[in-house]
Amino acid sequence: MKITNKYVIEAIVFLSYVLFAMAWVGGTASLSQIMASMHVNSYASASFISGAVTLAKILGTFIAAWFALTLGIKRAFFIACILVVLGVITPIAPTFDMLLISRFLMGLGGALMIVYFNPIVMNLFTVDQRSTINGLNAVAFNVGTAIVLWFIPQINALTGDWQHSLMIFSGFSLLLAMVWYLVVLTDNEPSSMLNSPQLPSKKYGYLDGLKDNFTWIYALSYSGLLAFYICLFTFYPKAGISASKWVIGFGIIGTIAGIIYSKKIKQRIPIIRWSGAIQVVTVIGLSFSSSASIQTLCAIILGFAIFFPVTALISIPHELSAMTGEKITIIFSLFWSISYLVATIILWLFGKLIDLNHGEFGSAFVLISIVSSSLFIGSFLLPETNNNGKTLS
Question: Is it true that domain 6-378 has CATH number 1.20.1250.20?
């Protein structure tokens, strides 16, 4: 059996990352049980349970382009899938070190996946289709996160406990990995990239990417928002802010709206700037308001505002002049690596501030509110790829 339909291929890619999100966030949602079973009492130490995945993403996203250039996207994505499956070790890990290793390997797989989205999309879909597919891939993590945050009690009740749930998530990831191995492309596809060990021949390496000002502006613009997002489902529930789950749910709605908007409106910067401004205000409201109603309202608006501009943000590199599969793989490899490096540092500082203040979250919330402004600031530095203001037909 061979799989050649590009929409089926995209479905496999999408579901693979949904399952990665479920495994990652499922482990994070079980943080209290893991801390108790491992006799971990420090929030700074506990942050490394989630941080192990984030650290893996720093390394994984950095080396992802090398894997793709050496092995080809199909083989590289298969390796990513298998690494995600290794998250099965998490619920049965006998020691804290083994737990961190399993989370690291799973995170490494997720890191590779997220970089490969863009060259796969670029080479399977037409220019008019890419913004829609990019938006769908952007919401994959949110879908997995939403499933866990909203339904993990029911899932655990159905499977027996959180350990069995995580093992089942890994089992489905293994199934998808096997299905992915059947993927091939026919000659009439836009590119044979998934079957070839080589990406497009135009040379653009890591050093070129690191010298490119766009790479740094692009990554740093997103890094603060990414740090907030990780803190949101890692620590906010521990602070008693249950409204955080509304951010995830309305993020899906925001992504769908962003796909529709970005399909019609060419200009990218206005949506990024206005959404960034709303994010700062609502992060503050969610973090510091004592009213449950205001927290919920802020969470709803925030979820929409975080993901509404994602399609436009991801589309920018695709719309830069002289873009190739090789170049876009390098750009997103460095983009995610830099973003996760900054987010990991902020995540640790967030946990450290809680420890230093004896379990109080106030100072940590000040930190995360400040860094969440990165997208708004970055909107003044990012290039506008469509200056004519016309709508797409």
Answer: yes
